């Protein structure tokens, strides 16, 4: 077993059955991804469209690619034909574009709304109020090419365990409010994407159904 495969196995053993793993492979080589693939991993997360395009072309076709980073509206068209899940939808404009491109490809692209729970101002995402207001507007119901499938968030990048737990819990409660109010009869709305290398055990305690882990599997990224 390689170092990557060993790390992958260790993480998978820690995950409860309801929590899936997105192996975050941005800035890592196709060879590293292939190693994880050979150990059985099928879901990989990327943050840059050009890099994703290159990897998608050369790696096995049964990989499920997730886009986890900030996505620019003008780049949606490149990934629309094959992307399995877009994690960080942070504006109605982006969701509209995803739907438009989804329709062109004859598919409904699964998307998560990014909730801003971190205390840092630089992070993207809807505030809980903005997200509720947007959903209450009902506009999204006409978007035939996008499927709102859950909520994504990133906790503050701090050492304070309590604060991180509080932020994930806020996202968890918010998910249920949204589910009850807008998606109670819709089974597709079921994904909670939170938890990264440094905080995924806390995320799992607060109901994460996808953790997005890079460094713990592949090592440090060389930017
Ligand atoms: C890079 C990235 C991750 C993975 O971060 P690690 O700390 O390497 O696990 C997870 N989520 C998002 C949105 C990212 O951009």
Describe this structure in words.
It is a single chain. With 223 residues, this protein is α/β, with parallel strands linked by helices. The chain has one domain: Alanine racemase (TIM Barrel, Alpha-Beta Barrel), CATH 3.20.20. It is 40% helix and 18% strand. The chain contains nine helices and eight strands. Strands 7-6-5-4-3-2-1-8 form an eight-stranded parallel β-sheet. α2 (30-38) links the parallel β1 (20-24) and β2 (43-46). The longest helix has 22 residues, at 161-182. It is globular and about 50 Å long. 40% of the residues are buried. The model has no long low-confidence stretch (mean pLDDT 97). The structure holds pyridoxal-5'-phosphate. Pyridoxal-5'-phosphate binds next to β8 and α9.
In short:
The chain is an alpha/beta fold and 223 residues long. It has an 8-stranded parallel sheet. It is built from 9 helices and 8 strands.
